[in-house]
Design goal:
mainly beta, four-stranded antiparallel beta sheet
Length: 280
């Protein structure tokens, strides 16, 4: 299942091999179309800023497939092609900031990635990450957690299929590190909702609140709050904590242990010295 950019519709795949586009506020089935012909599981990613769907599944000959669909007309896919003949279910992951789709199969050791384009052939194969260790599942780090100075454009956390640990996998663009690249890191979705639940239920549509990865304040608490139109910056729900974190990072390393457990360094100020300074 995947939601649109504004949350007004969502798309699903199902065991009956159908792809559905649903308007949840009206409890209405907007469109339905046959998907991949194979009986194995099919997965879906909503290409949010492109108004397209990306699905993975199997052909009737059990070949793994991918397909791209226009949400305005699901009668025929814009493109459908075969990946390979492996048996693992393929999961799509979409990065709307770079228009890149990552495909990772359960039991595979590789991750393919493609760039979505506006003209035919709809997408271009870029490259793949390869590993000899098979994966059981993956999850992605939000863009706000990436190392932009190292040109890290995406990060997976790989759950191994044969071992009990998780490995981070970073996708690094071949650019000069230490610099901020505007084309690699455009504004991304912020941790702030663009409307209230009541507004959404009343039929309002609003795109996500965006934030810059260049001017981001890494000390923000990132607690989501109601977005007020007209504000030129994100307002966190605990401004006081944000200021405290900023002060701590800029001025001192605070020791939160009880006084009985602290060890005073030679020449360091004691608590009595600090209190005496304030009294003076």
């Amino acid at each position: 299942m995947g939601f649109s950019w504004t949350g007004n519709v969502f798309a699903t795949t199902c065991r009956d091999l159908q792809i559905r586009l649903i308007e949840p506020r009206m409890a209405k089935l907007a469109q339905i179309t046959p998907g991949h012909a194979g009986s194995k599981a099919s997965k879906l990613a909503f290409l949010t800023n492109r108004k397209q769907l990306f699905t993975t599944g199997f052909s009737k000959y059990t070949d793994r497939q991918y397909a791209v669909w226009d949400i305005n007309n699901l009668s025929q896919p814009l493109k459908m092609d075969i990946l390979d003949s492996s048996s693992g279910v393929t999961f799509p992951y979409y990065d709307p900031d770079t228009s890149v789709v990552y495909l990772a199969g359960r039991g595979d050791g590789n991750i393919r990635y493609y760039e979505m384009v506006d003209s035919f052939p709809v997408l271009h194969y870029l490259s793949q990450y390869q590993s000899s260790a098979p994966q059981r599942s993956l999850c992605a780090m939000p863009k706000r957690g990436l190392n932009v100075n190292a040109c890290e454009i995406f990060r997976f956390y790989k759950l191994y299929a044969t071992k009990n640990y998780i490995e981070p996998i970073s996708m690094i663009a071949p650019r000069k590190s230490g610099l901020f690249h505007e084309d690699l890191f455009p504004e991304t979705a912020a941790p702030t909702p663009s409307m209230t639940t009541e507004d959404w239920l009343n039929g309002q549509n609003s795109p996500p609140v965006m934030t810059s990865l260049k001017t981001r304040d890494s000390l923000k608490t990132n607690k989501p709050v109601v977005y007020r139109a007209g504000d030129n910056q994100l307002i966190t729900s605990d401004r006081n904590n944000e200021l405290k974190f900023r002060f701590i990072a800029d001025t001192a390393k605070v020791d939160y242990r009880p006084l009985s457990e602290r060890k005073q360094n030679k020449g360091a100020l004691t608590d009595d010295d600090v209190r005496g300074g304030f009294n003076r």
